[in-house]
Each structure stands twice: as C-alpha cells, then as structure tokens.
Specification:
Elements (H helix, E strand, L loop, with lengths): L2 E4 L8 H15 L6 H19 L5 H12 L10 H18 L7 H11 L2 E6 L3 H10 L9 E3 H4 L6 H10 L7 E5 L2 H10 L3 E5 L12 E2 L11
Parallel strand pairs: 1-2, 1-4, 2-3, 4-5, 5-6
Helix pairs in contact: 1-4, 2-3, 3-4
Length: about 230
C-alpha cells in the first residue's frame, strides 16, 4: 500500500450528529419540538438534494434552497424567495450546525496507524472547499491529512473515477496501491473500487451492507487494512 485516501463527513467528522443537533435547536427556535419525522424529513431532503448537486444537476446554493422549500412548511414557516432562503440557511441552520462540529474519537488512532505504516495520506470530500477546510480547522486536522481535494474545487464528485484518480495523483500513488476509506458504501467503496482503488467501508452505525467483506466499525481498525 502506498497511500490512504480518507473521506471527511461521517468518517473523520460527525456530520450526522452535528446536523441532528442543529435541527433540534432550529426546530425549538421555531416553537416546535423535534420529532423523528422531522429528523427523517431533513435527512431525506439533504440526501436527495445533495446528490443532485454532486451529480451536477443543480448549483450548490440551489440544492440548499430546495432542502428549505421542503422543510420549512413542516415547522410552520413560510417559504420566501431565493435571497430569503439563502439568509435562512446561513443564519438559522448553518450557525447552529457549526456550533455542534465535532470529530470522532478514533481519528487520532487512525492517523497514528497511517504514520506507522509509512504511507501517504490525502483527503477527498464531496463538499465545498470553504466549509470543508473550516471543519478540518475546527477539528485540529488542518495540515495533518495531506492534500485536501473537494468536489467544489474539482468540479466533479465521488463516485466519479476522475476524483479518486486526482487524489492518488496528489500524493503520487498508484490507484492499485491506494486504499480509500469512507462511510458511504455506494460512493466511497463501490465508487473507489470502480476507479481501481482498494476500499474499506467504515460502517459506524451497523447499517450494512452486511455482505461487505472489507468493513470496519471504527477507525481504530484501520491498521489491519494497511498491511
């Protein structure tokens, strides 16, 4: 193995926890109580519209607006024009999301394992550079995960093979001797393998697929896959 390429959200950074806590705070600020149905609605809208941005179907700001257009009526809020939606996303959701940014407690163990294996490391994330670099800064990981490649800068996103190859090129590694680590199985595992990399699924929540042989539930297990 020459290199490890790490995902960010759900792998090093607890996006799910931060998003859920932000929605809780926001819903209460709207005079409602959070419910499983509201969490599910936010998560579903986020997944669908982020996928549309990832696939190049809508601009980044528009994917955020679409999320709000679906969610705001559920908490009794009117849907304004684009400028109002942009301000709401930033001032009502993002500020709360940032307040809950946390890393996972197994990240240091993973970086120690990578260093011990003597392999290069890069980070590849389906996000925009400003926010993803801010997350790394907040987690104390800036400058510690090698080159940082974002979909926003590349103009393409995982699972496109070109982005995996770009990450390998950034550290001068052969894709066939590079391991990709991420939590989104279709994107981070299936996509990486289709691009010629090895891949391991970080299945923190036991959501499967159960028949995935190259699987771990914690980054503390990463060293096993670097041999």
């Amino acid at each position: 193995m020459q290199a490890v390429v790490l995902d960010l959200d759900g792998t090093l950074f607890d996006h799910r926890g931060a998003s859920r806590a932000a929605v809780d705070d926001w819903v209460r600020a709207c005079g409602r109580e959070p419910t499983p149905a509201l969490h599910a609605a936010w998560h579903d809208a986020e997944e669908r519209h982020h996928r549309a941005w990832r696939d190049g179907l809508v601009p980044h700001d528009e994917h955020r607006r679409r999320r709000l257009r679906e969610f705001l009526p559920l908490v009794g809020r009117p849907v304004g024009d684009d400028a109002v939606l942009d301000a709401q996303f930033h001032d009502e959701y993002l500020v709360r999301y940032r307040a809950h940014w946390r890393g996972f407690d197994d990240v240091e163990d993973a970086l120690t394992a990578v260093a011990a294996a003597g392999v290069s490391v890069a980070l590849l994330t389906n996000g925009v550079p400003e926010q993803q670099h801010a997350k790394l800064e907040a987690l104390g990981l800036s400058g510690r995960v090698g080159p940082v490649l974002t979909a926003g800068e590349l103009g393409l996103a995982k699972p496109r093979p070109e982005v995996f190859h770009a990450a390998c090129a950034a550290v001068g590694a052969d894709p066939a001797r590079t391991l990709h680590v991420g939590d989104d199985h279709p994107v981070d595992v299936v996509g990486a393998r289709a691009a010629g990399l090895s891949a391991v699924h970080l299945d923190r929540h036991g959501e499967g697929p159960a028949d995935e042989a190259e699987r771990m539930t914690s980054l503390r297990e990463l060293g096993v896959f670097l041999r």
